[in-house]
């Protein structure tokens, strides 16, 4: 049954209402926290300020000097990182350019071949540097040689004087003695002369035959010249022979591996008169022409050699050696 409070009788003392025991609190510690002291009720004690810590925020406030130093250190670290990053980026760009260049220069791993390869001389090879040097060695002097190639013009002008070509001729291989007098013929055979190519020019009163003897090297040509014997036989194709068994003017000179000879005298086979200068002048003119022919041949060969990968020495002149030692003399022609 529900509990019901019984009324108290009149005059009886009524018990005091139930209440928690009252307790007196005394304020302890710093005022304003509002917590009782720790006496068993489970409340914490008075709040205490945390101990002071070292660093930029000390007991008296922030350490601005330390903060500035930290900020400067961080800025320097960022700058170093940017520098390193830029360097790496530059290396990657250069590497990419090199790689691209390599890839563009050839397909795959196959090298790109020169469409017109030329044979390069060996590093230890001594190369000709002048026209006369080229004509001193059959290794470099390889152009075809014959009378038609050497004497192509019907008419020439030398030192202001005009000469007309009348006839040309070539000896067979190793038969140089057929185009010269016997004394020099034997010398040419001994020095292994290959061919003699001849042409005759006239000026109306004089006949001049020039011969270019093709020898194996410069030394052989020099030996033939130094012998100083004989002359080329005059070559005629008309009824006006010249220099046959009469006194005529002769020249001999060397250019490279070539010995060139001239003989000049009056048409009709008359001897050269004593004190005459016209035959000597004509012989020198045609001798100069022969040298010019050989010089042009040497220059052409040198140019071809240089274009093929060889190089001439600095300051080398194609005319070096052009002042060949010519010898003019009056001697009987047979």
UniProtKB/TrEMBL annotation:
Classification of source organism: Bacteria, Bacillati, Actinomycetota, Actinomycetes, Kitasatosporales
**UniProt KW keywords:** Membrane, Transmembrane, Transmembrane helix
Q: Where is this region: Disordered?
A: 1-72, 106-128, 305-334
Q: Which domain of life is it from?
A: Bacteria
Designated name of the protein:
Uncharacterized protein
Q: Which SUPFAM superfamilies match?
A: beta-sandwich domain of Sec23/24 (SSF81995)
Ranges that cross the membrane: 81-104
Q: Where is the composition biased (Low complexity)?
A: 1-54, 113-128, 308-334
Which species?
Kitasatospora setae (strain ATCC 33774 / DSM 43861 / JCM 3304 / KCC A-0304 / NBRC 14216 / KM-6054) (Streptomyces setae)
* The keyword Magnesium belongs to this UniProt entry's keyword annotation: no
């Amino acid at each position: 049954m529900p509990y019901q409070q019984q009324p108290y009788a009149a005059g009886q003392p009524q018990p005091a209402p139930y209440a928690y025991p009252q307790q007196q609190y005394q304020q302890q510690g710093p005022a304003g926290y509002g917590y009782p002291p720790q006496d068993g009720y489970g409340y914490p004690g008075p709040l205490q300020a945390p101990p002071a810590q070292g660093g930029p925020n000390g007991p008296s406030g922030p350490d601005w000097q330390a903060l500035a130093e930290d900020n400067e250190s961080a800025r320097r670290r960022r700058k170093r990182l940017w520098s390193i990053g830029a360097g790496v980026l530059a290396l990657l760009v250069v590497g990419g350019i090199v790689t691209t260049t390599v890839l563009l220069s050839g397909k795959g791993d196959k090298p790109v071949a020169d469409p017109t390869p030329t044979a390069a001389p060996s590093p230890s090879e001594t190369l000709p540097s002048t026209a006369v040097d080229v004509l001193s060695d059959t290794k470099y002097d390889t152009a075809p040689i014959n009378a038609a190639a050497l004497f192509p013009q019907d008419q020439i002008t030398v030192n202001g004087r005009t000469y007309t070509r009348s006839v040309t001729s070539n000896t067979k291989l190793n038969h140089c003695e057929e185009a010269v007098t016997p004394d020099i013929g034997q010398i040419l055979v001994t020095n292994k002369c290959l061919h003699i190519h001849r042409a005759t020019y006239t000026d109306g009163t004089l006949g001049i035959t020039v011969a270019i003897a093709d020898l194996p090297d410069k030394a052989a040509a020099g030996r033939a010249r130094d012998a100083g014997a004989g002359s080329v036989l005059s070559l005629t194709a008309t009824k006006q022979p010249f220099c046959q068994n009469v006194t005529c003017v002769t020249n001999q000179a060397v250019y490279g591996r070539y010995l060139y000879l001239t003989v000049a005298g009056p048409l009709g086979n008359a001897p050269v008169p004593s004190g005459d200068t016209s035959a000597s002048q004509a012989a020198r003119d045609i001798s100069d022409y022969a040298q010019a022919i050989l010089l042009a041949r040497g220059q052409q060969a040198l140019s071809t050699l240089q274009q093929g990968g060889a190089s001439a020495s600095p300051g080398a002149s194609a005319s070096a050696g052009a002042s060949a030692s010519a010898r003019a003399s009056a001697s009987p022609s047979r």
